Amino acid sequence: MNTSERMITMEVLRYRPEQDETPFFQQFLVPFTDDMSVLQGLQYIKDELEGSLSFRWSCRMAICGSCGMMINGVPKLACHTFLRDTYPNTLRVEALAHFPIERDLVIVMDDFMAKLESIRPYIIADTPRALSEGEYLQTPAQLDLYEQFSSCINCLLCYAACPQYGLNSKFIGPGAMALVHRYNLDSRDSGSAQRMPLVHAEEGVFNCTAVGYCSQVCPKKVDPANAVNINKTESAKDYFLRFVTPKGAGK
Amino acid sequence: MKRSNAPIFWLLFGAGGMVSALIGPVLVFITGIAAPAGMLLPRELLSYANVLSFSQHWAGKCFLFVIIFLFLWHSAHRIFHTLHDIGLHAGLGAKLVCYGAATTGTLVAGCALLRLGW
Amino acid sequence: MSARRPYVRPMTGWWRKNPFFIEYMVHEGTAFFVAAYALILLASVVVLGQGEAAWNRWLEFLMSPLCIIAHVVILLAFLYHSWTWFNIMPRTLPPILINGTRVKAATITYGGLAAAVIASLIVFAIVARLAP
Description:
The complex is a heterotrimer of chains A (251), B (118) and C (132). Chain B is mainly alpha-helical.
């Protein structure tokens, strides 16, 4: 590893709503070592060069999902991307695509928060168990069904990768659909009847054109495209069979 | 929330996509290259008598209809979404043009094949 | 009054900005060639109903070098469609379990392509038998 300090040019999209009509790029010359992430580069800028630069971050280890941004045009976690991989080229950082910019690298995520709430991302039990009855039991095979989809950290990289969400923000989008799927597949859950109307709706899964980029950029290998497309099949089955299937049959 | 009617179009898109992915290339090769050029297959394959008897057989007739029908609906659905992708949100207009063309094509194919007799 | 003034970026030209999206637009574009081939078949069955003379004129057109070259282009688009169709298939199918382990994405893709090759050989064999 190269431990000597080098200088990289970071080009950051700035937007200060009180004074800027439109966003603009500002360049900073940042000293870095091989072990420094893009997030650390931004922290250097904020601490040493431009204190007004705004961005979200928290855990620094790809767990919290706060520091998603466009890095050289690709949705990535800033803490999970090294400066050395772009050097000696200029590294370009922008706010996550497809979301309105609140300020600099901070996006407005109200739309996603509302969607997240709408899908009821929690276990809905038919008959809630009393504490005295102990925990819900689940076999490893039952866990295996949904575990991949439960890795989502709500970082929104998949939304920034989804042109269909960019073109029509009413689309429920990959992340929320991965979570719908995660809870519907959970053996302890009985809430799918409450969630499926969102899947079937005009705002639901059929806005997806199987671009597949969401799954490509997901830092947690959730494969949201798979969740969306499995639910297209589920939704289509229900569309045609809803009149012949007795109510309450199946889960 | 209003339920989407997309499953109808999506299923036709998917069926057409699957059939064209499986045997589309070989069909293009047979009818557009091999037989017309007399390469690997004789030119007589496309003679009036031969094609007519194929189209009058129930299996040949059904095959031709299914291929034209599914290929039209597959492409109409994809083109409709591509128009949306490039920013032509013509909505109902684009829908009418794309799916209308596919419907017309399907009807014309059905009538033409039926009129060829059995 | 709120000082918030969220800035919404336009989507114009989004498909040109990322190689992944360029590829997506290219494989979506194969639909135009599928449509073209469907229309050629449609025209063929219509012309067939107009009698032998009309069919022979149509056949002459089909045998023209220009038309054969056009079909070569259509064939390339179809082949690309087949490849991309089976390439995205692992993302569209529910997990397939064999002996409790998940079938790999590459296995699904190559399995689909193998099915296409087999189906094509069967179609070709049937057609070859139909030849006078």
